[in-house]
Automatic annotation (TrEMBL):
Residues 2-239 form the ABC transporter domain. This is Iron complex transport system ATP-binding protein. Keywords: ATP-binding, Nucleotide-binding, Translocase, Transport. It comes from the Bacteria. PROSITE patterns: ABC_TRANSPORTER_1, ABC_TRANSPORTER_2. It comes from Ureibacillus xyleni. Pfam families: ABC_tran, CbiZ. GO terms for molecular function: ATP binding; ATP hydrolysis activity.
Amino acid sequence: MLQVKNICGGYGTTPILKDISFQVEKGTFLGILGPNGCGKSTLLKIISGVLKPSLGKILIDDKELATYSNRELAKTMTVLPQLHGAAFSSTVRETVSIGRYPHQKGFFSQWSEEDEYAVNQAMVQTGVKRYENAYLENLSGGERQRVFIAQALAQSSQLILLDEPTNHLDIAHQQQILDMIRKEVTDNGLTVVSVLHDINLAALYCDELLLMEKGQVRAFGKPHEVLLENQIADVYGAQISLQAHPEQPKPQITILPEIHEPLKDGKITLNHIQIQEEYVELRSQFPLRVLSSAVHNAGLGWYENFINRTVKPEYNIENVQEEYTQYLYKAGFSPTNTVGMMTAVEARKAIIKQYETPFGEVYVIVTAGIGGAIDVSKTYEREFPIRIGTINIWVIMNAKLSDEAFVQAMITATEAKTKALQHERVMDYQTNTIATGTPTDSLLIAATQTGDYMQYGGPITPVGKIVGRGVFEATTEAIRNYQKGE
Ligand SMILES: Nc1ncnc2c1ncn2[C@@H]1O[C@H](COP(=O)(O)OP(=O)(O)OP(=O)(O)O)[C@@H](O)[C@H]1O
Protein backbone atom coordinates (compact mmCIF):
# COMPACT_ATOMS: atom_id res chain seq x y z
CA MET A 1 0.00 0.00 0.00
CA LEU A 2 2.68 2.48 1.07
CA GLN A 3 6.37 2.42 0.15
CA VAL A 4 8.83 4.90 1.58
CA LYS A 5 12.10 4.73 -0.33
CA ASN A 6 15.34 6.36 0.81
CA ILE A 7 13.68 9.54 2.01
CA CYS A 8 15.85 12.49 3.00
CA GLY A 9 14.36 15.85 3.77
CA GLY A 10 13.60 18.63 6.20
CA TYR A 11 12.91 22.33 6.31
CA GLY A 12 14.88 24.62 4.02
CA THR A 13 18.50 23.65 4.14
CA THR A 14 18.23 21.86 7.48
CA PRO A 15 18.19 18.11 6.85
CA ILE A 16 16.00 16.28 9.37
CA LEU A 17 15.35 12.86 7.83
CA LYS A 18 18.19 10.70 6.64
CA ASP A 19 17.63 7.80 4.27
CA ILE A 20 14.32 6.47 5.61
CA SER A 21 12.94 3.34 3.95
CA PHE A 22 10.11 1.01 4.91
CA GLN A 23 6.86 -0.27 3.53
CA VAL A 24 3.37 -0.84 4.92
CA GLU A 25 1.04 -3.52 3.56
CA LYS A 26 -2.69 -2.96 3.16
CA GLY A 27 -4.63 -3.71 6.35
CA THR A 28 -1.70 -2.90 8.63
CA PHE A 29 -1.49 -0.48 11.55
CA LEU A 30 2.00 1.01 11.73
CA GLY A 31 3.04 3.05 14.77
CA ILE A 32 5.85 5.59 14.48
CA LEU A 33 7.75 5.99 17.75
CA GLY A 34 10.74 8.04 18.79
CA PRO A 35 11.84 10.80 21.14
CA ASN A 36 10.73 14.43 20.79
CA GLY A 37 12.21 16.14 17.77
CA CYS A 38 13.46 12.93 16.08
CA GLY A 39 11.43 13.73 12.94
CA LYS A 40 8.18 11.76 13.29
CA SER A 41 5.89 14.61 12.24
CA THR A 42 8.31 15.61 9.50
CA LEU A 43 8.15 12.07 8.11
CA LEU A 44 4.36 12.18 8.19
CA LYS A 45 4.39 15.53 6.36
CA ILE A 46 6.59 14.02 3.63
CA ILE A 47 4.38 10.94 3.30
CA SER A 48 1.30 13.14 3.03
CA GLY A 49 2.92 15.38 0.42
CA VAL A 50 2.83 18.55 2.55
CA LEU A 51 6.61 18.62 2.48
CA LYS A 52 8.74 17.61 -0.53
CA PRO A 53 11.64 15.24 0.16
CA SER A 54 15.07 16.34 -1.00
CA LEU A 55 15.83 12.75 -1.99
CA GLY A 56 13.88 9.51 -2.30
CA LYS A 57 10.29 8.77 -3.19
CA ILE A 58 6.91 7.79 -1.76
CA LEU A 59 4.72 5.25 -3.57
CA ILE A 60 1.07 4.71 -2.75
CA ASP A 61 -0.43 1.65 -4.43
CA ASP A 62 2.74 1.48 -6.55
CA LYS A 63 2.13 4.99 -7.88
CA GLU A 64 4.43 7.85 -7.06
CA LEU A 65 2.92 10.41 -4.71
CA ALA A 66 3.99 13.32 -6.93
CA THR A 67 1.81 12.01 -9.79
CA TYR A 68 -1.47 12.07 -7.79
CA SER A 69 -3.88 14.99 -8.36
CA ASN A 70 -5.09 16.71 -5.17
CA ARG A 71 -8.57 15.21 -5.38
CA GLU A 72 -7.24 11.75 -6.21
CA LEU A 73 -4.84 11.96 -3.29
CA ALA A 74 -7.58 13.10 -0.89
CA LYS A 75 -9.65 10.07 -1.84
CA THR A 76 -6.72 7.73 -1.34
CA MET A 77 -5.23 9.17 1.80
CA THR A 78 -6.56 11.02 4.83
CA VAL A 79 -4.28 13.09 6.99
CA LEU A 80 -5.00 14.08 10.57
CA PRO A 81 -2.20 16.39 11.66
CA GLN A 82 -1.28 17.21 15.24
CA LEU A 83 -4.05 19.44 16.52
CA HIS A 84 -3.42 22.79 18.09
CA GLY A 85 -5.77 25.13 19.90
CA ALA A 86 -7.07 27.07 16.90
CA ALA A 87 -10.36 28.96 16.64
CA PHE A 88 -13.18 26.91 15.13
CA SER A 89 -16.48 28.38 14.07
CA SER A 90 -18.23 25.35 12.62
CA THR A 91 -20.40 22.68 14.14
CA VAL A 92 -19.41 19.08 14.71
CA ARG A 93 -21.54 17.89 11.77
CA GLU A 94 -20.13 20.56 9.43
CA THR A 95 -16.58 19.64 10.43
CA VAL A 96 -17.10 15.93 9.91
CA SER A 97 -18.81 16.65 6.55
CA ILE A 98 -15.63 18.33 5.29
CA GLY A 99 -14.23 14.79 5.13
CA ARG A 100 -16.62 14.14 2.22
CA TYR A 101 -15.37 16.98 -0.04
CA PRO A 102 -13.00 14.77 -2.05
CA HIS A 103 -16.05 12.70 -2.97
CA GLN A 104 -18.06 15.66 -4.37
CA LYS A 105 -18.11 15.83 -8.14
CA GLY A 106 -17.83 19.38 -9.38
CA PHE A 107 -18.79 22.59 -7.66
CA PHE A 108 -22.57 22.10 -7.54
CA SER A 109 -22.58 18.42 -6.79
CA GLN A 110 -25.35 16.98 -4.64
CA TRP A 111 -24.86 15.71 -1.13
CA SER A 112 -25.53 11.99 -1.64
CA GLU A 113 -27.02 9.35 0.60
CA GLU A 114 -23.58 7.78 0.71
CA ASP A 115 -22.11 11.06 2.03
CA GLU A 116 -24.83 11.28 4.67
CA TYR A 117 -24.27 7.67 5.71
CA ALA A 118 -20.48 8.09 5.94
CA VAL A 119 -20.79 11.23 8.08
CA ASN A 120 -23.36 9.68 10.45
CA GLN A 121 -21.40 6.45 10.70
CA ALA A 122 -18.16 8.28 11.54
CA MET A 123 -19.92 10.41 14.18
CA VAL A 124 -21.46 7.34 15.81
CA GLN A 125 -18.17 5.42 15.74
CA THR A 126 -16.29 8.21 17.48
CA GLY A 127 -19.08 9.00 19.92
CA VAL A 128 -19.60 12.62 18.79
CA LYS A 129 -23.06 12.23 17.25
CA ARG A 130 -24.83 13.34 20.40
CA TYR A 131 -23.37 16.83 20.10
CA GLU A 132 -23.40 17.06 16.32
CA ASN A 133 -24.88 20.58 16.40
CA ALA A 134 -22.47 21.97 18.96
CA TYR A 135 -19.76 24.40 17.89
CA LEU A 136 -16.22 23.09 18.06
CA GLU A 137 -15.06 26.03 20.13
CA ASN A 138 -17.40 24.89 22.91
CA LEU A 139 -15.94 21.36 23.08
CA SER A 140 -13.12 20.05 25.23
CA GLY A 141 -9.74 19.21 23.65
CA GLY A 142 -10.55 15.50 23.73
CA GLU A 143 -14.01 15.93 22.22
CA ARG A 144 -12.56 18.07 19.44
CA GLN A 145 -9.91 15.43 18.79
CA ARG A 146 -12.63 12.84 18.28
CA VAL A 147 -14.47 15.14 15.86
CA PHE A 148 -11.36 15.34 13.68
CA ILE A 149 -10.96 11.58 13.82
CA ALA A 150 -14.60 11.33 12.69
CA GLN A 151 -13.76 13.68 9.82
CA ALA A 152 -10.84 11.44 8.83
CA LEU A 153 -13.07 8.34 8.91
CA ALA A 154 -15.82 10.05 6.91
CA GLN A 155 -13.32 10.59 4.13
CA SER A 156 -13.44 6.77 3.59
CA SER A 157 -9.94 6.52 2.16
CA GLN A 158 -7.76 3.41 2.22
CA LEU A 159 -4.83 5.02 4.01
CA ILE A 160 -5.00 7.22 7.10
CA LEU A 161 -2.07 9.17 8.50
CA LEU A 162 -2.49 10.24 12.11
CA ASP A 163 -0.27 12.40 14.28
CA GLU A 164 -0.81 11.51 17.93
CA PRO A 165 -4.53 10.76 17.63
CA THR A 166 -4.91 10.05 21.34
CA ASN A 167 -3.46 13.34 22.51
CA HIS A 168 -5.83 15.03 24.98
CA LEU A 169 -7.92 11.88 25.38
CA ASP A 170 -8.66 10.24 28.71
CA ILE A 171 -8.00 6.48 28.95
CA ALA A 172 -11.56 5.46 28.09
CA HIS A 173 -11.48 7.57 24.93
CA GLN A 174 -7.95 6.44 24.05
CA GLN A 175 -9.22 2.89 24.21
CA GLN A 176 -12.37 3.73 22.26
CA ILE A 177 -10.52 5.49 19.44
CA LEU A 178 -7.76 2.92 19.13
CA ASP A 179 -10.24 0.01 19.31
CA MET A 180 -12.18 1.69 16.54
CA ILE A 181 -9.11 2.24 14.36
CA ARG A 182 -7.98 -1.35 15.06
CA LYS A 183 -11.42 -2.65 14.00
CA GLU A 184 -11.29 -0.68 10.74
CA VAL A 185 -7.83 -2.15 10.06
CA THR A 186 -8.83 -5.73 10.87
CA ASP A 187 -12.35 -5.80 9.44
CA ASN A 188 -12.13 -3.41 6.49
CA GLY A 189 -8.47 -3.56 5.50
CA LEU A 190 -7.78 0.09 6.36
CA THR A 191 -4.08 0.98 6.41
CA VAL A 192 -3.02 3.29 9.23
CA VAL A 193 0.26 5.05 9.84
CA SER A 194 0.24 6.89 13.13
CA VAL A 195 2.72 8.80 15.23
CA LEU A 196 2.19 7.67 18.81
CA HIS A 197 3.88 8.86 21.95
CA ASP A 198 2.54 6.18 24.21
CA ILE A 199 4.81 3.17 23.64
CA ASN A 200 2.45 0.81 25.48
CA LEU A 201 -0.57 1.78 23.41
CA ALA A 202 1.53 1.43 20.27
CA ALA A 203 2.63 -2.07 21.33
CA LEU A 204 -0.97 -3.04 22.09
CA TYR A 205 -2.65 -1.78 18.95
CA CYS A 206 -0.06 -1.68 16.15
CA ASP A 207 0.96 -4.56 13.91
CA GLU A 208 4.33 -2.99 13.26
CA LEU A 209 6.44 -0.28 14.80
CA LEU A 210 8.96 2.10 13.30
CA LEU A 211 11.36 3.40 15.92
CA MET A 212 13.08 6.62 14.89
CA GLU A 213 16.22 8.18 16.27
CA LYS A 214 17.71 11.48 15.11
CA GLY A 215 15.98 11.41 11.73
CA GLN A 216 16.85 7.78 11.02
CA VAL A 217 15.23 4.39 11.37
CA ARG A 218 16.60 2.68 14.47
CA ALA A 219 14.29 -0.35 14.25
CA PHE A 220 11.32 -1.61 12.26
CA GLY A 221 9.27 -4.72 12.95
CA LYS A 222 6.69 -6.34 15.19
CA PRO A 223 6.28 -4.81 18.67
CA HIS A 224 8.25 -7.62 20.35
CA GLU A 225 11.08 -7.13 17.85
CA VAL A 226 11.29 -3.37 18.28
CA LEU A 227 10.56 -2.91 21.98
CA LEU A 228 13.76 -4.32 23.38
CA GLU A 229 14.62 -3.06 26.83
CA ASN A 230 18.13 -1.83 25.96
CA GLN A 231 17.06 -0.35 22.64
CA ILE A 232 14.23 1.72 24.13
CA ALA A 233 16.39 2.80 27.07
CA ASP A 234 19.11 3.86 24.66
CA VAL A 235 16.92 5.71 22.13
CA TYR A 236 14.89 7.59 24.74
CA GLY A 237 17.67 7.89 27.32
CA ALA A 238 15.27 6.58 29.97
CA GLN A 239 15.41 3.82 32.54
CA ILE A 240 12.71 1.31 31.73
CA SER A 241 11.72 -2.26 32.40
CA LEU A 242 9.90 -4.51 29.95
CA GLN A 243 7.07 -6.85 30.92
CA ALA A 244 4.37 -8.84 29.21
CA HIS A 245 0.88 -7.38 29.04
CA PRO A 246 -1.33 -9.30 31.53
CA GLU A 247 -3.81 -10.47 28.88
CA GLN A 248 -2.20 -10.09 25.48
CA PRO A 249 1.08 -11.34 24.04
CA LYS A 250 2.38 -7.77 23.74
CA PRO A 251 5.37 -6.14 25.42
CA GLN A 252 4.73 -3.25 27.79
CA ILE A 253 7.23 -0.90 29.35
CA THR A 254 7.35 0.62 32.80
CA ILE A 255 9.44 3.64 33.67
CA LEU A 256 11.94 3.02 36.45
CA PRO A 257 12.14 6.35 38.28
CA GLU A 258 15.66 7.45 39.13
CA ILE A 259 14.42 9.51 42.03
CA HIS A 260 12.16 7.39 44.13
CA GLU A 261 11.51 6.53 47.70
CA PRO A 262 14.31 4.09 48.40
CA LEU A 263 12.99 0.74 49.56
CA LYS A 264 13.14 1.12 53.31
CA ASP A 265 16.14 -0.82 54.40
CA GLY A 266 13.65 -2.94 56.25
CA LYS A 267 14.44 -6.33 57.64
CA ILE A 268 11.93 -8.92 58.62
CA THR A 269 12.46 -10.14 62.17
CA LEU A 270 10.60 -12.59 64.35
CA ASN A 271 8.74 -9.62 65.89
CA HIS A 272 6.86 -9.10 62.63
CA ILE A 273 5.30 -12.57 62.84
CA GLN A 274 2.53 -13.21 65.35
CA ILE A 275 0.18 -16.04 66.05
CA GLN A 276 -3.29 -14.69 66.88
CA GLU A 277 -6.44 -16.55 67.90
CA GLU A 278 -7.83 -16.73 64.35
CA TYR A 279 -4.77 -16.34 62.16
CA VAL A 280 -1.03 -16.24 61.74
CA GLU A 281 0.05 -12.77 60.63
CA LEU A 282 3.09 -11.02 59.31
CA ARG A 283 2.91 -7.21 59.29
CA SER A 284 6.04 -5.73 57.80
CA GLN A 285 5.40 -1.93 57.59
CA PHE A 286 7.12 -1.99 54.19
CA PRO A 287 6.19 -3.87 51.01
CA LEU A 288 7.70 -7.24 50.17
CA ARG A 289 7.76 -8.71 46.69
CA VAL A 290 5.60 -11.80 46.72
CA LEU A 291 4.77 -14.74 44.52
CA SER A 292 1.96 -16.88 45.88
CA SER A 293 -1.01 -19.12 45.23
CA ALA A 294 -2.95 -17.51 48.09
CA VAL A 295 -6.75 -17.21 48.21
CA HIS A 296 -6.59 -13.42 48.38
CA ASN A 297 -4.17 -11.47 46.13
CA ALA A 298 -2.49 -14.46 44.50
CA GLY A 299 0.22 -14.02 41.88
CA LEU A 300 3.13 -11.65 41.75
CA GLY A 301 2.94 -8.32 43.56
CA TRP A 302 4.07 -6.13 46.44
CA TYR A 303 2.35 -6.47 49.82
CA GLU A 304 3.00 -5.49 53.44
CA ASN A 305 0.68 -7.90 55.24
CA PHE A 306 0.26 -11.65 55.15
CA ILE A 307 -2.34 -13.70 56.92
CA ASN A 308 -3.04 -17.41 57.17
CA ARG A 309 -6.57 -17.48 58.52
CA THR A 310 -8.22 -20.36 60.34
CA VAL A 311 -11.75 -21.10 59.18
CA LYS A 312 -14.21 -23.70 60.38
CA PRO A 313 -13.92 -27.05 58.54
CA GLU A 314 -17.45 -26.49 57.26
CA TYR A 315 -16.51 -23.09 55.72
CA ASN A 316 -18.26 -23.12 52.40
CA ILE A 317 -18.96 -19.61 51.11
CA GLU A 318 -19.98 -19.00 47.56
CA ASN A 319 -18.24 -15.67 47.14
CA VAL A 320 -14.95 -16.32 48.92
CA GLN A 321 -13.30 -13.15 47.56
CA GLU A 322 -16.02 -10.91 48.94
CA GLU A 323 -16.16 -12.70 52.29
CA TYR A 324 -12.38 -12.64 52.62
CA THR A 325 -12.21 -8.92 51.81
CA GLN A 326 -14.83 -8.17 54.47
CA TYR A 327 -12.94 -10.32 56.97
CA LEU A 328 -9.71 -8.41 56.29
CA TYR A 329 -11.47 -5.06 56.82
CA LYS A 330 -12.88 -6.24 60.13
CA ALA A 331 -9.53 -7.62 61.28
CA GLY A 332 -7.84 -4.29 60.45
CA PHE A 333 -5.93 -5.32 57.31
CA SER A 334 -5.96 -3.33 54.07
CA PRO A 335 -7.39 -5.77 51.49
CA THR A 336 -5.26 -4.26 48.72
CA ASN A 337 -2.09 -4.59 50.77
CA THR A 338 -2.57 -8.08 52.16
CA VAL A 339 -2.03 -11.60 50.88
CA GLY A 340 -4.42 -14.04 52.53
CA MET A 341 -4.49 -17.80 52.85
CA MET A 342 -7.01 -20.06 54.51
CA THR A 343 -6.77 -23.27 56.53
CA ALA A 344 -8.87 -25.39 58.87
CA VAL A 345 -5.79 -25.89 61.09
CA GLU A 346 -5.78 -23.82 64.26
CA ALA A 347 -3.35 -20.90 64.13
CA ARG A 348 -1.65 -22.02 67.36
CA LYS A 349 -0.46 -25.15 65.54
CA ALA A 350 1.58 -23.13 63.07
CA ILE A 351 5.32 -23.76 62.98
CA ILE A 352 7.57 -20.72 62.68
CA LYS A 353 11.23 -21.36 61.98
CA GLN A 354 14.06 -18.88 61.70
CA TYR A 355 17.30 -19.53 59.79
CA GLU A 356 20.49 -17.48 59.66
CA THR A 357 22.06 -17.56 56.20
CA PRO A 358 25.03 -15.75 54.62
CA PHE A 359 22.58 -13.45 52.83
CA GLY A 360 20.16 -12.73 55.70
CA GLU A 361 17.52 -14.32 57.92
CA VAL A 362 14.91 -16.55 56.38
CA TYR A 363 11.60 -17.45 58.03
CA VAL A 364 9.49 -20.44 57.17
CA ILE A 365 5.95 -20.58 58.51
CA VAL A 366 3.80 -23.66 57.94
CA THR A 367 0.36 -24.97 58.90
CA ALA A 368 -0.27 -28.55 57.85
CA GLY A 369 -3.70 -30.13 57.70
CA ILE A 370 -3.21 -33.54 56.16
CA GLY A 371 -6.66 -35.13 56.60
CA GLY A 372 -7.17 -34.85 52.86
CA ALA A 373 -3.65 -35.80 51.79
CA ILE A 374 -3.46 -37.29 48.34
CA ASP A 375 -0.98 -38.89 46.00
CA VAL A 376 -0.92 -36.51 43.02
CA SER A 377 0.19 -39.28 40.64
CA LYS A 378 -3.10 -41.11 41.32
CA THR A 379 -5.68 -38.33 41.46
CA TYR A 380 -6.76 -39.03 37.88
CA GLU A 381 -8.44 -42.24 39.04
CA ARG A 382 -10.20 -40.96 42.16
CA GLU A 383 -13.63 -39.63 42.91
CA PHE A 384 -14.19 -36.35 44.70
CA PRO A 385 -15.09 -35.03 47.22
CA ILE A 386 -12.30 -35.89 49.59
CA ARG A 387 -11.59 -34.94 53.17
CA ILE A 388 -10.55 -31.46 54.16
CA GLY A 389 -6.94 -30.41 54.70
CA THR A 390 -4.41 -27.90 53.47
CA ILE A 391 -0.70 -27.32 53.82
CA ASN A 392 0.07 -23.60 53.76
CA ILE A 393 3.72 -22.60 53.46
CA TRP A 394 5.30 -19.15 53.66
CA VAL A 395 8.97 -18.54 52.98
CA ILE A 396 10.04 -15.00 53.92
CA MET A 397 13.53 -13.92 52.88
CA ASN A 398 15.69 -10.93 53.71
CA ALA A 399 17.21 -10.83 50.22
CA LYS A 400 16.72 -9.52 46.70
CA LEU A 401 15.38 -12.24 44.40
CA SER A 402 15.16 -12.30 40.62
CA ASP A 403 11.86 -13.46 39.06
CA GLU A 404 13.67 -16.66 38.14
CA ALA A 405 14.70 -17.20 41.78
CA PHE A 406 11.07 -16.70 42.90
CA VAL A 407 9.84 -19.43 40.55
CA GLN A 408 12.70 -21.77 41.37
CA ALA A 409 12.09 -21.22 45.10
CA MET A 410 8.45 -22.26 44.54
CA ILE A 411 9.61 -25.50 42.91
CA THR A 412 12.23 -26.17 45.58
CA ALA A 413 9.69 -25.54 48.36
CA THR A 414 7.17 -27.90 46.74
CA GLU A 415 9.79 -30.64 46.48
CA ALA A 416 10.75 -30.13 50.14
CA LYS A 417 7.10 -30.30 51.22
CA THR A 418 6.61 -33.57 49.35
CA LYS A 419 9.77 -34.97 50.94
CA ALA A 420 8.36 -34.07 54.38
CA LEU A 421 5.15 -36.00 53.64
CA GLN A 422 7.21 -38.96 52.52
CA HIS A 423 9.40 -38.72 55.61
CA GLU A 424 6.37 -38.67 57.90
CA ARG A 425 4.75 -41.45 55.85
CA VAL A 426 1.60 -39.42 55.29
CA MET A 427 -0.70 -41.65 53.26
CA ASP A 428 -3.36 -41.12 50.65
CA TYR A 429 -6.09 -43.07 52.43
CA GLN A 430 -7.85 -44.02 49.20
CA THR A 431 -4.90 -45.29 47.18
CA ASN A 432 -2.82 -46.41 50.16
CA THR A 433 0.26 -44.82 48.66
CA ILE A 434 2.46 -42.05 50.09
CA ALA A 435 0.77 -38.66 49.73
CA THR A 436 2.44 -35.77 47.92
CA GLY A 437 0.28 -32.94 49.26
CA THR A 438 -3.38 -31.98 49.63
CA PRO A 439 -5.72 -30.70 46.90
CA THR A 440 -5.67 -27.14 48.28
CA ASP A 441 -2.05 -26.52 49.33
CA SER A 442 -0.83 -22.97 49.07
CA LEU A 443 2.66 -21.55 48.84
CA LEU A 444 4.08 -18.07 49.25
CA ILE A 445 7.59 -16.82 48.62
CA ALA A 446 8.25 -13.24 49.79
CA ALA A 447 11.45 -11.20 49.76
CA THR A 448 12.36 -7.75 51.09
CA GLN A 449 14.21 -7.03 47.79
CA THR A 450 17.00 -5.35 49.75
CA GLY A 451 20.41 -6.82 50.55
CA ASP A 452 22.16 -9.51 48.53
CA TYR A 453 20.95 -10.20 45.00
CA MET A 454 19.98 -13.82 44.47
CA GLN A 455 19.54 -14.73 40.84
CA TYR A 456 18.69 -18.41 41.32
CA GLY A 457 16.63 -20.47 43.73
CA GLY A 458 17.28 -24.07 42.62
CA PRO A 459 18.17 -26.75 45.18
CA ILE A 460 21.93 -26.23 45.11
CA THR A 461 21.90 -22.40 45.36
CA PRO A 462 22.08 -20.49 48.67
CA VAL A 463 18.35 -19.67 48.38
CA GLY A 464 17.41 -23.22 47.39
CA LYS A 465 19.46 -24.80 50.15
CA ILE A 466 17.64 -22.88 52.86
CA VAL A 467 14.23 -23.19 51.21
CA GLY A 468 14.74 -26.94 50.92
CA ARG A 469 15.86 -27.38 54.47
CA GLY A 470 13.46 -24.88 56.03
CA VAL A 471 10.33 -26.11 54.27
CA PHE A 472 11.22 -29.75 54.99
CA GLU A 473 11.83 -29.10 58.69
CA ALA A 474 8.87 -26.80 59.25
CA THR A 475 6.45 -29.02 57.32
CA THR A 476 7.64 -32.12 59.18
CA GLU A 477 7.06 -30.38 62.52
CA ALA A 478 3.72 -28.99 61.41
CA ILE A 479 2.56 -32.48 60.35
CA ARG A 480 3.55 -33.85 63.79
CA ASN A 481 1.80 -30.94 65.49
CA TYR A 482 -1.34 -31.67 63.51
CA GLN A 483 -1.21 -35.39 64.25
CA LYS A 484 -0.82 -34.71 67.99
CA GLY A 485 -4.20 -33.00 68.07
CA GLU A 486 -6.08 -35.43 65.84
N1 LIG B 1 8.42 24.10 10.28
C1 LIG B 1 9.65 23.80 10.70
N2 LIG B 1 10.71 24.54 10.32
C2 LIG B 1 11.96 24.22 10.73
N3 LIG B 1 12.26 23.20 11.54
C3 LIG B 1 11.24 22.45 11.96
C4 LIG B 1 9.90 22.71 11.57
N4 LIG B 1 9.09 21.78 12.15
C5 LIG B 1 9.93 20.99 12.86
N5 LIG B 1 11.19 21.38 12.76
C6 LIG B 1 12.37 20.73 13.38
O1 LIG B 1 12.50 19.43 12.84
C7 LIG B 1 12.91 18.52 13.84
C8 LIG B 1 11.95 17.34 13.85
O2 LIG B 1 10.65 17.81 14.22
P1 LIG B 1 9.38 16.91 14.20
O3 LIG B 1 8.22 17.76 14.52
O4 LIG B 1 9.36 16.10 12.97
O5 LIG B 1 9.73 15.93 15.42
P2 LIG B 1 8.79 14.89 16.17
O6 LIG B 1 9.57 13.64 16.24
O7 LIG B 1 7.46 14.84 15.54
O8 LIG B 1 8.73 15.57 17.60
P3 LIG B 1 7.60 15.55 18.77
O9 LIG B 1 7.66 14.19 19.37
O10 LIG B 1 8.11 16.57 19.72
O11 LIG B 1 6.29 15.90 18.16
C9 LIG B 1 12.97 19.30 15.14
O12 LIG B 1 14.28 19.64 15.41
C10 LIG B 1 12.13 20.53 14.86
O13 LIG B 1 12.63 21.63 15.57
